[in-house]
Amino acid sequence: MNDKPILRYTSNQRTNHWLVAILFLMAALSGLALFHPALFWLSNLFGGGPWTRILHPFMGVVMFVLFLGLVIQFFRANFFITNDRLWLRRVGRVIKNEEEGVPPIGKYNPGQKLLFWTLLICMLVLLFSGLVIWRAYFSEYFGITSIRWAMLLHALAGFILVLSIIVHIYAGIWIKGSVSAMVHGGVSRAWAKKHHGLWYREVTRDEHPDRPISKKG
Question: How far is 78 from 116, CA to CA, in rounded Å?
């Protein structure tokens, strides 16, 4: 059987992903600097307080635009299907790396799909609340009550987003091969068949999913 790696992410998708990751880190650090006086020292990374206040919203907008590019490419693969519900019932076996008997899933597992929609919601909240509190351009059009609510929602969405990214990084490291896929683009057929059976069948058109994958000597 052909043991050529399967393309999981194109070079454009990988570049987009890492640009979003870099901008997220910069926006998070600058946001933390503005969030509490005890963290204001982080503003030194961006040239001081004034520059941090100037750059933070622009970085956030660029991050959202790039993230939207990922959403457009991946949102169809993140719709929930029947097997996802069955997969969640046996998630304990997945955690133990005992995936035999676990229903096959598509390109993304239910945990990844939940993360995808959580990130999208948080990004939207951050964008619109950020526009409300963006003093240089938009805050003058809103009352003080609206601005206070926007600041609260912005902080809450940012907190959830940071936690979600931490989970994303941990899961990527925990499932061996996930980080490599986002670096190099390809995954082995054995990896795809084990972790994303339905996607494996779709991209390889394998009509015998239970057939072992042979390797060239």
Answer: 7
Q: Which of 56, 154, 168, 196 is labelled catalytic?
A: 168
| Model confidence, pTM | 0.86
Give DSSP secondary structure letters for 147-205: HHHHHHHHHHHHHHHHHHHHHHHHHHHHSTTHHHHHHHSEE-HHHHHHH-HHHHHHHH-
Is the pLDDT reported for residue 216 higher than 50?
Answer: no
**Cα separation of 98 and 92, whole Å?**
9
d(CA 169, CA 76): 22
- Per-residue pLDDT reduced to its tens digit, 106-144: 999 999 999 999 999 999 999 999 999 998 888 888 999
Q: Is 168 a catalytic residue?
A: yes
CA 142 to each of CA 73, 129, 131, 135: distance values in angstroms, whole numbers, following the listed order: 34, 11, 10, 10
In sequence order, the 6+-apart residues with CB closer than 8 A to the CB of 89 are: none
Q: Tell me the average pLDDT of the chain.
A: 89
Q: Tell me the two tokens of residue 212.
A: 């072992």
Domains of the chain and CATH, by start: 9-173 (1.20.950.20)
pLDDT for 2 equals 60
Please check whether residue 56 is in contact with residue 28, taking contact to mean a CB–CB distance below 8 angstroms: no
Q: How far is CA 88 from the centre of its chain?
A: 20
Q: Which is higher by pLDDT, 136 or 211?
A: 136
